[in-house]
Amino acid sequence: xxxxxxxxxxxxxDKMKSDGTLPIFCGLTINKKRVSFNIKTSVTSNIWDASxxxxxxxSKQATDINRxxxxxxxLLHEKHDEIFDRNGIVDAEELxxxxxxxxxxxxxxxxxxxxxxxxxxxxxxxxxxxKYSPAILQKYKCVxxxxxxxxxxxxxxxxxxxxxxxHSFLTDFETYLRVEGKCQTNTVGRNMRLLKKIINIAKNxxxxxxxxxxxxxxHFEKTDKPCRFSSHSIQCGSHGQ
Length: 241
Description:
The strands form 3 sheets. The protein has a 3-stranded antiparallel sheet, covered by helices on one side. The protein has a two-stranded antiparallel sheet with strand order 4-5. Strands 6-7 form a two-stranded antiparallel ribbon. Helix 1 crosses helix 2 (92-100) and helix 4 (134-155) packs across helix 5. By secondary structure, the chain is an alpha+beta fold. It has helices spanning 60-87, 92-100, 113-126, 134-155, 167-179, 185-204; strands spanning 5-11, 22-30, 33-43, 48-49, 54-55, 105-106, 109-110.
């Protein structure tokens, strides 16, 4: 289900420019999380209509300003759909960054965890039938979905930067698997082992400098039970881990 978001444009009277005009800001709210940014356009106070978030009248200034605002509204919807199609969830900060041109990569280098994970899955899918089985691909996709759900629940984010991943991220994810997913020790271990491969890809490519697994131990026991997620997430038996 797509997240709904609200957009409002407003002026900052406390930041009046030297020419007497007021800068226009965009306020963006997704799932009760609000961010704002300057759209780099200003307006004279006498033509700004706060009730419509637009400039009033048919003057050239009003027409130009409203055209810029309309372009931002269209771009916000386009970027929202792009992020949703890629991640299955949209974070307000990520949407803002996409509008401002803050890319999810630097010089082609990925900086987000699920970005690396998706690249891995896409490459693996190309080799299904020759190098990998459909079953192993499904296992990685299953863990990918769990990480998505975990990020949404724990951090209210659709992704996390590689540089932000620490030992605490792993322990929090392990707790999520045990509590929310009702996973037993071996199921947790299999999930954490697949995630470790993605982290190793980032580490081996120099995309992550601190190895969160350095002081984290993956545990296994002799017997285990399947992991069953509630209906709002996914259900994975031993075949889906």
